[in-house]
Amino acid sequence: METLTTKTACGKNDQESLTPEEMEQRLYAAVDSHKFEESRFYKLVVKPKCPPALIARWAWAVHASATTFCAMLADLVETAPTTAARLTLLENLMEEEGIFLHASHGLVAKPEAKHCALSLRLAQACSQELEAPQGASDTIVKANRYIQEGRWLETVSFILVGQELRFARTSLLMYEVLKKKGFSEWDLAFLTVHGEADERHGREAIELVVDHALTREEQELALQAAEAGARHFFNTYN
């Protein structure tokens, strides 16, 4: 694709902003450049004789991330630049916290539906002997650093596009792997939920980025953050 340019008053060439369609395609390409199924972890875990301890460590690490994700997401809600963005992210947060809108009852909280409750169920099914790592994961630390620096758009790109969207595919693949190893639907509820929810949340995040990255500079920063998020996600499995 040829690079579009436009002349400024000073006679310099500046790149024009990507169209929404082009930006969306570039974001998906950034995420798809790092595939979970190509990681060393996946190639090990699909083997019939994969050590149970490897699966257990993965499950507890997933639970650790789930327990710290909501606080980071709340910061994104608080710092969202528009009401529409705040609402989109708040709906994501409510789902993570097991809160649903009921036509005749208002907001209904279901503690058992909280995603961190589902991740704990998964981790305990994999091994009762381990505990979740203490403190925020490296992913959350990086995302929080973006937020503290006022880089809201890059945070959305890094963690919601680059990682949450990637985790949707990961969840589906790990569901198939663990199902074949004898885990029950009850054990794997976290994965079935995230196979659908994270795909939806990731697509919503792409819409947020497309809507708020208006200049070519903003677009390039968002694209770099999305690719960095997907690469970081892949490297944790590689």
From TrEMBL:
Keywords: Oxidoreductase. The keyword Amino-acid biosynthesis does not apply. InterPro entries: Haem_Oase-like_multi-hlx, PqqC-like. One of its GO terms (molecular function) is oxidoreductase activity. It holds the Pfam family Haem_oxygenas_2. The keyword Oxidoreductase applies. It comes from the Bacteria. This is PqqC-like protein.
